[in-house]
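re: ur msg from earlier - yeah i can do the 2-OXO-4-methylpentanoic acid complex, just paste it... oh wait u already did. ok heres what im feeding in:
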Amino acid sequence: MDIRFEKASVLKQKPADETKLGFGQIFTDHMFIMDYTEGQGWHDARIIPYGDLTLSPAALCLHYGQEVFEGMKAYRRKDGEIQLFRPTENFKRLNSSNERLVIPELPVEMAMEGLMELLKVEKDWVPSADGASLYIRPFIIAVDPFLGVRPGSEYRFIIILSPSGAYYASGLNPVKIYVESKYVRAVRGGMGYTKTGGNYAASLKGQDEAHKEGYSQVLWLDGVEQKYVEEVGAMNIMFVIDGEIVTPELQGSILPGITRKSVLELCKSWGMKVSERRISIEEIAKAYDEGKLNEVFGTGTAAVISPVGHLKYGDKVMTINNNEIGPISQKIYDTMTGIQWGEIADPFGWVVPVE
Ligand code: PLP
Ligand code: COI
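and the outut:
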């Protein structure tokens, strides 16, 4: 693939203190863009200075949400090299989202090539502070200037990069999660399994109300009966019940998380009991009352492994493992981050070096 490169005339100052990056607030010097035109396919790959986009105010994505995105990270190892974690899984998932939103397929190799070239240009932006990484946000938008409701015929694929620290201000300290029983995020047959802006728009109201009560995110229940646990705003959820890892099965309404999949593979490789099934919130409350709810944690690229310290369901507040990170969450966190940052061997073939 031919990628045109236009270098930024002035390079930005890199963050002086890499321990205070926050999440998704700082952007690098360049971005990758490629266009799609019906009949022509993907074309005009380019790496250009990071900056505002020019879009028609009638662009389809602005009105009807025909948009998909991904979230991944580039990690700097102690030896200075840079690596990615299962990046092709992200581009496969992007295509699954594309399929649901009637956006044309983007060949995984093309997306990977664009990302690798951009990372070579921006490699100095990958932070080396503990827990910091370069967050990668690929996305596709429909740009046709048209107010009728139909799939677009012109799209833009863009990758932007953001040096970031922990997603939650609390870092590895347990987060407080509110079980949402008023609003729903997704239903089976809907778009819950895709990464599209609309799912996040649907989640804002619940999240906003939870924030006002001092909770950092909500735990969504199924959209039909509001009985079964689904996932959290930006992560999948796992419970350790009586020593067994239990997580909601994938049945169309939750995101098939790449961290989720990796954690399940990891725990199986350790010989742990793992089950993917429907779990009612009542079952969780009962396990808690019986002293069998050992640990709860979320999994996600941005969130990594986030222990849950409080789970509020109606009037019931469950304090999990004394609001401390539990031994299983800690072991998973250490192993996942160890592999991601190249500090321990990767027996699974998950990491991909950026050369
Ligand atoms: N669920 C939602 C709604 C998310 O936004 C994310 C983050 O991407 C996840 C789960 C975790 O997915 P992954 O582990 O692939 O980052
Ligand atoms: C990620 O973990 O990559 C996410 O996309 C979460 C997010 C919506 C910030």
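cool cool. Residues 71, 231, 234-236, 255, 257-260, 299-301 surround pyridoxal-5'-phosphate (ligand 1) (CB under 6 Å). ping me if u need the other ligands too
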